[in-house]
Amino acid sequence: MTVRLSKEPFSPYDLLLQTEKELDGRRRKIGASSIFIGSMRDFNDGVSVESMYLEHHPEMTVKELEKIADRAEKRWSLDHVLVIHRIGEVYPSDPIVLVAVWSAHRAHSFDACRDIMESLKSNVPFWKREKREDGERWVTKNTSGSSADF
Amino acid sequence: MSIKVKFFASLTDLVGMKEIDVEFESELNVINVWQSVCGTAQMPAGCLYAINHDYCEPDQLLKDGDEVAYFPPLTGG
Prior knowledge:
The structure holds two protein chains of two kinds.
Chain A: E1 2-6, H1 12-23, E2 32-39, E3 43-44, E4 47-56, H2 61-75, E5 80-86, E6 88-90, E7 95-103, H3 106-123, E8 126-132, E9 135-138
Parallel strand pairs in A: 1-5
Antiparallel strand pairs in A: 2-7, 3-4, 4-6, 4-8, 5-7, 8-9
Helix pairs in contact in A: 2-3
Chain B: E1 2-7, H1 10-15, E2 19-23, H2 30-38, E3 48-51, E4 54-55, E5 67-71
Parallel strand pairs in B: 1-5
Antiparallel strand pairs in B: 1-2, 3-4, 3-5
């Protein structure tokens, strides 16, 4: 399991390539890789957003991410879990979060990847402050993770 | 007893501070501390709480030296 925060912009695709190399001998037993990349939109609630500041709780964030990844590793049969989350100032199209899960079969990687992402949304102390065309404001709630709500 | 109180994100704007050290003579729970420190500022719906960096329930009692943190609804990812 690899879990970390990044103050600097990161390329999820470079990190995935790097991780694939590091999987080394385990790679031959992996039949499924599920990947979620969350990135910043330039709009929210119909208003243009110029940038966003990601605040977090320094003593809790990584600990809570590790709990979520650890729980997923116990619940499903996984070969590796990678979670990276940005903090600080982000701009439209910047990746905010990468969740990647490797396993022998797709059922485990699909389910674990979604569970980790949804648990992150509701359990890990991050907050977004948007700089918008009409001023600055804290984002007050997450959008739904269910397609039925759109 | 001495308690460190921390506020995050929109709550810092609401209560006008990031953290404060306070002394209490009686035993208080998480909600009591908010009421004592924040006066008339109403806690927004959906807030979360942590004592010493672990999530807790609003009726959990605090001990001398504890740190209690108040979080508005989370918006990461």
